TrEMBL record:
InterPro entries: Hemerythrin-like (IPR012312), RIC_family (IPR019903), ScdA-like_N_sf (IPR038062). The lineage of its organism: Bacteria, Pseudomonadati, Bacteroidota, Flavobacteriia, Flavobacteriales. The keyword Cytoplasm applies. Residues 83-232 form the Hemerythrin-like domain. It is found in: Cytoplasm. Pfam families: Hemerythrin, ScdA_N. Keywords: Cytoplasm, Iron, Metal-binding. This is Regulator of cell morphogenesis and NO signaling.
Amino acid sequence: MKLTSKTTVGEIVADDFKTVAIFTKFHIDFCCKGHRTIEEVCRKRDIEENVLIDHIEKARNSSANQSFDYKNWPADMIADYITKTHHRYVAEKAPVILEYLDKLCGVHGAIHPELHEIHTIFSKSFLDLTAHMKREELVVFPFIKKMKTAYSKGTKLETPPFLSIETPIVTLKDDHITEGQRFRRIAALTNNYTPPVDSCSTYKVAFLMLEEFDKDLKKHIHLENNILFPKAIELEKTFEKVS
């Protein structure tokens, strides 16, 4: 893919996930705001376009840290991968993180009151993500799989209760924006997940787990916003053409 000032961040990351390191370095949101162009993010961050593009090209040409070619996976395969990898990660890790945050608030909350806000934000995030993932697993992802099967077999697609796949996708993307805002706040409250110098091991582990959770969530949102959802929308359009 040739890079231009009009290429979006989401398209770049979808084409090569190694470029995430560059967008992270320049503090550019590649998941919730992946629709922005190189021109837009450079203007926002006061970065020279040629400098950012040069960094991106170097990352794309690097053979290190090769990742899966998600962009060329079929939509149903991506949906299964997200469920088994990222949904499972949230379900397994979030309760453990909450346990650590409970302990930190009890022991260090008086000296570090920001821990209480972190706990509140993360608790709301886990609650909302659980509902969000259920909507995907019970409604949206099964319909994506039905579309893929109908397309492969050349059969008629049944009309979903939401009329168009774009309807639930809009809501899901709004959820992603909320989570992005929440974790930007957590990152600010934790000084980018840097525990105090005199912190105990529980403090360090909790912040490390929060940082890993944040990174996994960014990839999770990227796969949906920039790869799965566009594929689902395009797949649905093929049935419109047939009818």
